[in-house]
Design a protein that fits this description.
Protein name: Dienelactone hydrolase domain-containing protein
Domain Dienelactone hydrolase: 52-256
Shape: globular
Signal peptide: 1-23
Number of strands: 8
Order of helices and strands: HEEEHEHHEHEHEHEH
Number of helices: 8
Strand order of the largest sheet: 1-2-4-3-5-6-7-8
Keywords: Signal
CATH topology: Rossmann fold
Number of domains: 1
CATH superfamily: Alpha/Beta hydrolase fold, catalytic domain
Distance between the termini: 38 Å
Pfam family, one: DLH
Helix content: 25-40%
Length: 259
């Protein structure tokens, strides 16, 4: 593991520690706060590609989206709500449990957990899911990675595994990852993100501008902190920014998977 990844892991650990120690809204913009929800799930958990996956969307679809979550896993309500939103747009949507029933639990030591579940290992579990999608007749696949999942999505994008990628406040993702990207990629960052700083997102953007053969879109959302797309509360501002990011994500997939 190189120095950049180690530094990113340190910041990720600090982020989890802060969130664990506070039970109230830690930011005015509503990001980084997981709220309880009475959301009614539209999909089901099934075995797929060797992992438990929350699956939603039309079974007849020829296009699929893999959503890769943060360290808290595939069970929290917003993760599945987003999966259902993607599914409602017509995509066969797969939200895998990359942690095999062992997501990070607030209050527990982070270092041993992340050592066991380093995002660099995620691509090994993602490939069988991609193979399973193709075996059922899927012709085009997109991947979206949130926080921890951003690194996995970036690694997949270095190979012809997927046709389009979206990274949302990705941690552990490096400039070398972006240089290696070979598919259309969108990167959504936050102005107040301490884990995927806007300066780093700008570096990503500059690298992508030097690669005109790869379509790209980079956006930094004002006034939002890390996790705003996935772990948001019910304030008007938080919901608006989260929904804007989801809309941008879907627009990117529509552009590159349906044309």
């Amino acid at each position: 593991m190189n120095l950049t990844v180690k530094v990113n892991m340190l910041f990720l650990g600090l982020f989890v520690l802060v969130n664990t120690s506070l039970s109230i809204d830690i930011s005015k913009n509503g990001a980084n706060v997981e709220m309880s929800s009475d959301y009614c799930e539209k999909g089901k958990v099934k075995q797929f590609g060797g992992l438990d996956c929350y699956i939603s969307g039309p079974s007849y679809s020829k296009t699929a989206i893999i959503l890769i979550t943060d360290v808290f896993g595939f069970a929290p309500s917003h993760s599945r709500e987003i999966a259902d939103k993607v599914a409602a747009a017509g995509y066969y949507t797969v939200l895998p449990d990359f942690f095999r029933g062992d997501p990070y639990v607030r209050g527990k030591p982070f270092a041993p957990w992340i050592k066991k579940h380093a995002p660099e290992k995620g691509i090994k579990d993602a490939i069988p899911i991609i193979k399973a999608l193709k075996a059922r007749g899927i012709t085009k696949i997109g991947v979206a990675g949130f926080c921890w999942g951003g690194k996995v999505a970036a690694d997949l994008s270095k190979h012809p595994y997927v046709e389009a990628t979206v990274l949302l406040h990705p941690t552990s993702t490096t400039t070398e990852d972006i240089r290696g990207d070979k598919v259309p990629i969108s990167i959504l960052g936050g102005e107040l993100d301490d884990l995927c700083k806007p300066e780093l997102v700008k570096e990503f953007e500059n690298i992508l501008k030097s690669k005109p053969e790869v379509d790209s879109f980079v956006k930094i959302f004002p006034g939002v902190a890390h996790g705003w797309t996935l772990r948001y509360n019910n304030t008007e501002f938080a919901i608006k920014k989260a929904e804007e990011s989801h809309s941008d994500m879907l627009h990117w997939f529509d552009m590159h998977l349906r044309h």
